[in-house]
Amino acid sequence: MNLYDIPPRQTQSYLTELLKSRNIWPKNKMGQNFLIDLNLMDLVVNSANLQPSDAVLEVGSGTGSLSNRLVENAGFVLSVELDPAFQKLTEETVIERDRFFLHRGDILKGKNQIQPQVTEKLVEITSMPGISGYKLVANLPYAVATPVMSNLLISRNPPTKIVAMVQLEIAEKIISKPTSKDFGALPILFQSLAKVEIVRRISPAAFWPRPKVDSAIIKIDPSPLLRSKLVFEGVKPEDGPLCFRNFLRGLYVHRRKNLRGALLSMPNNKLSKAEIDAKLVILDIKGEVRAETLSPLDHFRLCTQFGAGVFVSAETDETAD
Length: 321
Known about the structure:
Blueprint (H helix, E strand, L loop, with lengths): L11 H11 L11 E2 L2 H11 L5 E6 L5 H9 L2 E6 L2 H10 L6 E5 L11 H11 L6 E7 L2 H13 L6 E7 H7 L10 H9 E9 L4 E2 L6 E8 L1 H6 L10 H12 L7 H6 L8 H11 L12 H10 L16
Parallel strand pairs: 2-3, 2-5, 3-4, 5-6
Antiparallel strand pairs: 1-8, 6-9, 7-9
Helix pairs in contact: 8-10, 8-13
């Protein structure tokens, strides 16, 4: 790379002129808010601790600003962009094209699955010589942040690290603790599979256009040890996280009910009240408590005792927590 190949630092004034020259305007419904605080972009990249042996999955390449930073530090970058206008712009602005692949399309197939083409490409990339795994590093569009992170986390090929900019409300929910108003299916799932922390709270002024809410950089370190404990009778070990997610979703569909009532109301449940009470006695958990007062470990025990295999195909609302 020579001096003329160095990509420009994408400040607000630069982005404004760039998009104006292409007759492109950010779309709020697609979560197109671009990070213009260059120090925060450095923080994102540094928090990911990228190595030449890392592949990176980026969701929402936008103008290619973060894409270029990722290519500089990682062994390979797979970027996903849905908007055709920004697909073209990314292709023009990313310099190191030999270590970069742009997937043109949606990262998700519905709410419960990563696009198979993306999954297959990740397998291909992580099988390349010198690549030992992949990390999700992205300024995630708000609308897809939760399903992208959760579906990757429970997949058979999970990332080794997630560093993402997300809505602050989502980040605070993921790190929430029992008895808090935010505690439910989502934080239990994440905390049962990974160590989670908020790196930095971000004000709307760090983005252009400015979103209406605060954001945060969240760091998630998936734990192979925690993952290995999500094993249930009648379920393949690699499907344990998926099984646990579906159990949690079903349990929290009726979160205002006490634990006994929530278990009775779960999709596919065939147990009577007396049978549920008997199992709760074995666990030494009272049926009158609310599920959100229990620890992630207690939720795992519930899932084991109540036959997780029954719930592996249960489909409920992604937002149930």
